[in-house]
Amino acid sequence: MEEHAQENEDEFEVETEDFTTSLDLGETQVSMDLLAFHRTNKGALAALRRTSTTPCLLARKELMKGEEIHNHSRFFPCHLGDLMLVLLQERCKDENHPWTLVREFHKDDSTMERPPSYSRVDLGSRGVYEVAVDAELHLQMGTHGAVLYMTHDNDGDRRFHFGVPKSQRLEADRFFEELEEDVFSTLLKGLVMTSTYRVLDRSTYHDERLTLSKDIEDAIDREVIQYVPLMKELEDIGVPSSRGVLLVGEPGTGKTMIVKHIVRSLTELSIIVVTPDELGRGSIRRIFQHARRMSPCMVVLEDLDNVGAISRDIAQHPILGELLVAMDGTDGNSGVIAVATTNNLNLLDGAIRARPGRFDRVIAVEAPSSDVRRSMLTRQMNTFGGQPENLDMRWLVRETEGLTGAYLNEVVKSAFIRSRQRGSTSIEVLDLEAAVSDVVGSRKMATEGRRTSTSHSAPPSQLFA
Known about the structure:
Layout: H1 2-11, E1 20-25, E2 28-33, H2 34-51, H3 55-63, E3 69-76, H4 78-93, E4 100-106, E5 117-122, E6 128-133, E7 135-140, E8 145-152, E9 158-165, H5 169-187, E10 192-194, E11 199-200, H6 214-225, H7 231-236, E12 243-248, H8 255-265, E13 270-274, H9 283-293, E14 297-301, H10 320-328, E15 336-342, E16 361-364, H11 370-383, H12 393-399, H13 405-421, H14 429-448
Parallel strand pairs: 10-13, 12-15, 12-16, 13-14, 14-15
Antiparallel strand pairs: 1-2, 3-9, 4-7, 5-6, 7-8, 8-9, 10-11
Helix pairs in contact: 4-5, 9-10, 11-12, 11-13, 13-14
């Protein structure tokens, strides 16, 4: 700074001490001493700065121990920003951690007396936290002080501004990196969440309606549930531990319920549940990057075919390349299991389906077998008060052949509604007969576009009519 000032003095060296200038204002001539004006102006600015010094500015100066402040800003999506504040708050409460919170107040209050607003952050089984919104926080970081204040936009996304003494400027970068990394490696680890980091209640992923065939149950157990404990051993011997499983079946066959079964069974695993509306350019890469931070972790991609058909036949598909790289590219996919569901395998690119390193296994989820249909129908009827005494279950099982779990549920529900509309307090055979006819007919209309003659046998009530 001194060298720069000297250069300026050399460049603008003057030989006079007379700084008087004259201005011609028409009929009036005005003389002004520019040096006196400069001194007066400088004194006025200094006085203005002294009067505008606020308690907040004084507190910041005290935290910086007289040094100039170095500011560093970072932008974070809403829920990630909230989670970083939760972690910061917990760190400051930890007596064994060097960070402490000195004060927090509303960022627009220079007197530091107005409290900030607070936002609730629900971490499921780990509790509900409150974090400051539009706040300024003064922190002691062990060896130096720091100022953190934040703003947010209409979507709730956060921008953090972190200030440290200029001699500690590298600490600003490390602060954000450490906090973000630890959100995934500690705070979110073992939880179920959306791709935007909203924590979900794992207990809600239990579904009593689930009944699997022995083949599917064995495949799910072998390819997913029993695979998780092997991941560390694979890594230890230098073998990539990533895994991809694709569940394929028409709508209603129970793919979503199978996913719920997996989530409920893997109680210690971090799980990210991704729906089609959450997928877009850049999102796949981010999701898998964060999954690796929480490894072992499972990424659930629901209804993969609904993302505009992920195929190179769709010119410049926005996420095909990202998915290929994320699952088996230069980034690696260590410690991550991907479980995806699809209604139509043909809409997925050949480089994705049945490709070791991406989706290693394809499990067909078909309409339930006769034994599974019997179990599902019995359980459903028990939910609605039990089955009719004169019901021939062999007939009902036979007539519902080819129906998925969703259609079987609809058969019993429809029979229950008919019984109540008749004024009966229990389901009778005639209600089930009508319900089967309606549901089978509806399914044919949905799949064939028109009602066709049925090959189903006559209902028991009409055999001796």
